[in-house]
Amino acid sequence: MVSPLAGKTIVVTRAATQASEFVTLLEQYGATVTLCPTIEIREPENYHQLDEAIDHLYGYDWIIFTSTNGVDYFLKRLEFKGIPISELDDIRVCPIGEATAAKLHDAHIHVDLLPQVSKAEGVYNALSDFVGGQQHLEGLNILIPRAAVGRDHLPRVLESAGARVDIVASYRNVVPENLDRGKLSAMLAADTDCVAFTSSSTVRNLALLFDTHDLSEKLKGLTIACIGDVTAATAEEYGLHVDIKPSQFTVAELAREIAEYYAR
Description:
With about 260 residues, the protein is an alpha/beta fold. The protein has 2 domains: about 10-40 and about 175-264, 3-Layer(aba) Sandwich (Rossmann fold), CATH 3.40.50.10090; about 50-170, 3-Layer(aba) Sandwich (Rossmann fold), CATH 3.40.50.10090. The protein is built from 10 helices and 9 strands. It has helices at about 20-30, 50-55, 70-80, 100-105, 120-130, 155-160, 180-190, 200-210, 230-235, 250-264; strands at about 10, 30-35, 40, 60-65, 90-95, 140-145, 165-175, 195, 225. It has a 5-stranded mixed β-sheet with strand order 3-7-6-4-5. Strands 2-1-8-9 form a 4-stranded parallel β-sheet. α3 links the parallel β4 and β5 (about 90-95). The radius of gyration is 19 Å and the shape is globular.
């Protein structure tokens, strides 16, 4: 049986520390994978906001975790401060995405709500339904520990419904220091068939590395794969046509969709 990605070279832009599962899945489909991380996950510049939120956890009704990184760095800070996970017992917890939910389960943290649609609009609708309607969002205190720079749609719509939302930086997505622009250009040009983006930050940082807001020339002729709607929208903002976008926003589904695209 011929592997659907045999002879295809896929560039993966995900952070090196998180790319292994995606790389393995693509290789199982027969792909040659080039790892070219355009983001690196680091601690926040300071912990002032996060520490203040952690010190006042009793004041929150909900914590919304937008990524596995948000969970990791939040829990690291809890441990550093000597605060037990049981402090979260009386707070409702809502992760965005199955991988984030799995990370919470692994840490023995309860999940009260897992929205079916893993983006801001789906989270807002699921949360509204859970509390009994939009009017019951008013007065809720919500904590969102996330990247220092992130999409603001969810906190904005929650605040418009009357909730108080604290967005605190628990980590940063930064451009890797050792990424060479010339080497990157050569990598993208050398028999590459497809570039896979797993977050908006991977797109934005690639554009930043090339000092452009239009990636269409740099990635001309390449198939563009994005993990979901938000990443795809960012890619389109930077001049890219998105060829592959799974309906479920996981690396397993993204790998499968890439394989199916080439199998056709």
